[in-house]
Amino acid sequence: MPPKSPVWDLFHSNRTKYKTDDTHLNAWCKACVTAEIRQIDATASEHDPPLTEQEKFDEALRRLEPICGKRKRLEAHVEKCKVLTPQERASALLRIGKENVPPPPPSTPGPSRFPLSHCPPSTPATPSTPLTGGRPLKRARTSLDELLVQLTQAEFDVDACKLFVACGITWNAANNAEMQKFTKKWCHSMSDRRVLSGRVLDGEMKKIEKTVKDAVAGLLVTGQCDGWKNVAKDHVVSTVMTAGNEPYLVCTHDMTGEPKTSDRLLELVLSDINYMVEKYGVTVIAWCTDDGPDGKKMRRLLQQRYLWIMVLVCWAYQINLVVGDFLNLKLDLLLIIAQCLEVIKWFNNHGTALALLKDEMKFTYEGKIWSLVLSVITRWTAHYLSSTHLLKVKGAVTSCIHRHEEKLKIVKDSWFWDGLTKIQAILEPLALAANITQASHTRLDHVLLTLGNLFRIYSTSSTRTLDTEIAYGIQSSLEKRWEKADQDIFILAVFFNPYIRSRIFSPAVLTESSLYSIVDKVFKRFYGCGGDLVLYKAFTDYVRGEGDFSPEEMNLEWIKEMFNAEPSNAPPEGSNALLKLAILFGSVHTKYRNRLKAEQVHKIGVLKMDIKRSQLAEGHGTNRSKRKFRQIESPSDENSPAAPLDPTDFRALADSLINEAIDDDIEPDPSPTPVASAQPSNPGSTSSRHGRGKIPLELLFSYDLTAVALNNRTGMDFYWKGGIRNIEEELRQCDEDEEDKELSTNTTLV
């Protein structure tokens, strides 16, 4: 009888035969059995009697599928076992290979710079039969060194692919001669760029898809899509799925040459929804788009098909439309912002004047230097930061001018500074609102509370520094945006915030019975049936703070204290998932990599987002310098004109905002093609979504009671301070950039 193979040292056997095989025994991998026993311990209930070690072992064997006791089958399992780490697998292969791999020739011991797993493959001169004699092997086999190199080469390719994606290295660098020499000298040969960007990248995509599926399966998710033109001027549309406050890139469509219509966009959205449901096992409950002409009609068609899906518009874009309405009211204020940018450009372009200004800042502000931010981002919030910073250094600028008699008549004119102060006061609340509504964690209650707070701020009774015409115009614009919204779900989102409930709503407009009417209608819309007495009892307990919904039973104070004590609960940075995605795609698909296809850019984006999630989970978030507004290129929106806007030309940007606000007032042709309703898993009501009359912002909230509630943050400013902190952080980043620049200059001089 031949001796038992060493591979059996890695397996258990209970001496039973494998199925109908009378020759070979059942085998179970020891590593898999150990992992299964750990799983049994982890899932054991406290109420169940404890199992003995033998009982756990027997239960693990019962759960695991046995392996045929053939040597080939056992060795194949060792090579593919997912439980073994690469080091354990290499050690196991060493033990297995002793029977077929000749011992190495004797050599004097000495240090080696290569680990065992990175040894070069055996040379052809290595004999394939044992040096100590004995009969030759039945067939030629790959040497152990070659097998180890193959395994580690595959791991090296995966790590190289991740490194290239994380660091933004082009695939062509893999074929660079210096890269090939470096990697071959120190570790492995670098694989061809087509291997890394093809087979290896596709393999990582499959792993990520499985990881995402495990993380989101069974969850309620929201979807959002947007389109833009990449560096190659191709029109692409990308879809992002958000689950548990985490965005996941799902699909990217190359729409070049296809019609840009609402019907085509609806086809893409329906296709992506089906893909998300079938691929990841999620339930899509909401969909968000921009407010372009195709998106506007597409949302209406999607509502007709799925009444139980909340179809929303991007509210950061709606705030931009409010700014456009304001600029259309006061065109004379555009001149002040244009002059503000001219002053900033003049100082930044004249080194001597800028040096004098910095000296004046040190003298005026006790050694503090603030930067003059000249924005090159085509977003009005960046110009708000520019005007705010210039206003901040007003004293130093005017003092510098008086001392050195420069020909800058603008800064000598008090009308300019008075107008700049007025603009800053008008735009500041809107800038805060834009910061809140464009955050990646923005919720429906954030939006409605922000709208209510803006309406309160711009009311003529509380805004004494603003013209009545401006205040009334901004309020009218806010009412116009709110009237088009799906008001029921926004009202309920605020109502179901247990820290607010119904206390800030006007009791004359939203009585307890009218609130329950909204609850019952939305419940019927989502679940296809009306509420019962259980729902009504829960509603009354909640609205009155009684029973299970009392503050004590819900532990509201404890949750608040725990939240405030956790540093990771700082307000999120103001940038939504699609904007981040557009910037990410822009960093990948550059003018030097303009031959990348949309599918390839999509895969790189998916892997890059997964790497970032892994780094944050491991506590390896990058602590890099803050971004500089002068160095950011804004992605090209699909609705942008062919000629890009000059970011320093605020008049052109203002004209764009004004035109967008005017176009938004013009509804598209309401003649959609009838669409057959699809049956969802939980069909909602087929009744009209807006049976009740719309409630204007003016009547929705009790603004007097809200003003009293502002001190304890139970009113409409519930999330307002987070926006203030984010705006202050933006300004602080500009100052840090200036300090870093000064430090770099001084270091260079030393």
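The record above closes out task 2.4. Task 2.5 opens with a second protein, given below.
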Amino acid sequence: NISLHYYQFPQISPSSTASSTQDTTTTQPSYESSLTIFGRKVIGVRYKQTHYLDSTGTEMEPREPTSEIDIEQQLQVKVKGEVGKKIFANVDYDDTLPQSEQQKISLKYLGDEKELIQEVAIGDIQSAWRDSQFLSYNQSLFGVRVKAKLGKFNLTGIGSMTRGIPESKTFTGKTASEKREILDTSYLKRKYYRAYFDSSHLPLTLGSVEVYIDDQKGTNNEDSLKMTVSGEAGDSYTGYFDKQYPGEDYFLDYEKGVLNFSSLIEENYVIALSYLDKDGTRHPQTGYRMLKKGEEELYID
């Protein structure tokens, strides 16, 4: 690979005085304005030649070799300086950036301390509020910014133009509507339960319901609570119950007394609860009563 770097700067007219360094050229016209131009021009040349070997990989084929030349160029130029009394120019060009960001131009007027107009900036400007207690803002704009001062009154006005790349896309959906009929008998089983023993107890006291489940698995009872719960028919059941937590394991409508479990309730699960009715009376008075016991339909709502 061969790389070649070439630097070139604009010519200076004979009527101007100039001072230069390796990468900087300063032009001072007769009207006492000065511009500083600096930048670089890079030309990269890459040469590649390919030779083809025979099947043994040791001797050259009669076929002629091929060659390629790749040239890459970069240009970065900046111009800064004073073009008139209190007027400053700034030009920044970089062809390695995206097309919308390659060229930035701005002019700035800076007034004296006692002037009404303190600053006028035109072109690519930076709008920022960094010292505000209630607002933090920093945005690059193309427009005009004016700062004025009258006594202790300060005013900043900004006008900008929106720049962008227009583009439109059209999407065609491939979904089709489908009408499905669900019978009232096709509800999701073992998900909704009646969380009261008598409709006269409604609405239940908010936050009073306690729900426990025994999944009848003997391998996960380390943190379970062993207790005996009663049934509606006077029977009882003794098992290892895990407490269920509202908002995580179930949702409860205290007005209607409807219990909605988040996870699947298997057929062999045993569900027990207790609650306070609208008058603050505990049901049952002691312990817990079953809502569901195994596969018995009596306890399934």
